[in-house]
Amino acid sequence: MPMPVEELRGHLTEAFPDAEIVIDDLAGDGDHYRARIVSAAFAGLPRVRQHQLVYAALKGKMGGELHALALETSTPAQASPAGD
């Protein structure tokens, strides 16, 4: 059974309460999403570790209820346009 976008958002918001989160349903099937997450929790972490934190937030549902998740993670400083 696919994961509704509200459930995905809930897991991410619980793990990253300060985050700006944008989720796109890539195939319209509730199985293939792209998530852009901007959070201070990612500061000082390599991209691989940032993604591991996101997968941990999904509590084992990746590969089951959630088939595919394209991730874009960054800190607020990285997400700000130059000069801000």
From TrEMBL:
Highest taxon above the source species: Bacteria
Q: State a single Pfam family of this protein.
A: BolA
Supply the InterPro entries for this chain. Answer: BolA, BolA-like_sf, BolA/IbaG_stress_morph_reg
Q: Which family does it belong to?
A: Belongs to the BolA/IbaG family.
Protein name from the UniProt record: Stress-induced morphogen
